[in-house]
Design goal:
Elements lengths: L2 H14 L7 H12 L6 H5 L4 H7 L1 H12 L8 H5 L1 H16 L11
Helix pairs in contact: 2-7, 4-5, 4-7, 5-7
């Protein structure tokens, strides 16, 4: 295999696996630790939106979801979290969890 083919394969693999480290169970843990305080009934909350809606809310490292919370006085307790680097870094896990159990997934998360 030539160096060019090998490097192309490596770069393509890296590109395709960029979100492969996101995990549903990590997202569920984040939801339990950070979200369930305000969104009491987790099953109903997760099923509020379709997969596409969750994807849209959690694109760009979760900026749209964070902005939604930062606009709401009712969510004031969560503002520090949604402004944090920790949230942006872990939002991919939260996205995986919320998309997996979205309204149109037919699945129900176990809490």
């Amino acid at each position: 295999m030539s160096i060019f083919k090998l490097s192309s394969f490596f770069l393509l693999s890296l590109f395709l696996l960029s979100d492969a480290d996101a995990a549903i169970y990590k997202g569920q843990n984040i939801f339990i630790k950070k979200c369930i305080v305000c969104h009491k009934n987790g099953e109903n909350f997760v099923a509020k939106h379709t997969k596409a809606e969750w994807e849209k809310l959690l694109r760009q490292d979760g900026k749209p979801l964070g902005a939604l919370h930062l606009k709401t006085k009712k969510a004031k307790k969560s503002w520090k979290y949604f402004k944090s680097q920790k949230y942006r870094k872990k939002s991919k896990h939260l996205r995986e969890f919320l998309v997996e159990y979205a309204k149109d997934s037919g699945k129900i998360p176990l809490f």
